[in-house]
Amino acid sequence: MALPGLGAPITAPAADLPDWAKRSTNLANAAIGAKALFATDEFFAPLERMLNPEPAVFTPGLYDDHGKYMDGWETRRKRTTGYDWALVKLARAGTIEGFDIDTSHFTGNYAPAVSIEATDCDSEDLEALAKAQWTTLLPSTSLKGNSHNLIKITPEQTWRVLRVNMYPDGGIARLRVYGKPMGVFDRSQPDTIYDLIALENGGRAVAWNDAHYGEPSNIIMPERGINMGDGWETRRRREPGNDWCILQLGATGIVESIEVDTAHFKGNYPDRFSIQAARMEGGTDQSVITQSMFWDYLIPEQKLTMDAIHHFKEQIISIGAITHIRLNIIPDGGISRLRLWGKVVS
Questions:
Q1: Residue 141's beta-bridge partner residues?
Q2: Which domain CATH number covers 69?
């Protein structure tokens, strides 16, 4: 509902993501630790909004002290030579597959072009970053206004901080950096317990049969889900069988306990679940799908209840070290979070 004097908020449409983005993690997601470090100008809208994981929203009639309220990063109109730029620290070091430079709701004020540089320097100190070695990942590229500008690059080494150059000024609603995060594991402490599947530890969604209401990558996000949309939910199954998704652990490990959280899922939680798992070497994401049908069970079928955290330990079958799991929900429904607690092995 619109507030008095304001139009109804308009949410930007989701991008029609290509396969390389669907199977990647947004490393510039503030919800998992990405940070806005510096911007040459933030007159109309602060840099930190550009890292918000939620879709950009436009509210007609909403103004602040600097002018029209824009949901993104927006600089003032430049009246000198040069260009604006900003530093963004990724949530985790990782390889980068490509970008969504989202200019949703920016029409006469979007950035006409950008380039993106990167460094593997892990510092947040501006002087240290000024002295770091930078590599151009994306040369100067023209943008379209009010659009998802999806750009694929060739992944190389891992990167930690990006420099986003905006020529010469303007606004960007969201920056999404699709890639594969590197887990942070202290291998000198072999008895340390980690959530091996957590997105922030390098876990990722590989494949799934259905994600009508929510993506599988949501179930490995930090914290508990905030609502029913913050999870993996499939359509109502009207045929035999069950729904499934395949996820890759952040590192090879041995699972010791499992948590399945059905927070907010009440009339639509799965009746049961099971997990199959294997240690995979070689192959591709596509080839894993067929193989997963024959993986050993890490945990056989277990009952679930609505809106609750379920803990499993004694039910886990010892199958050794694994790299991938297939989560089966029976027959369909929604899960908010999945945690696989265990130890990293070589």
A1: 114
A2: 2.60.120.260
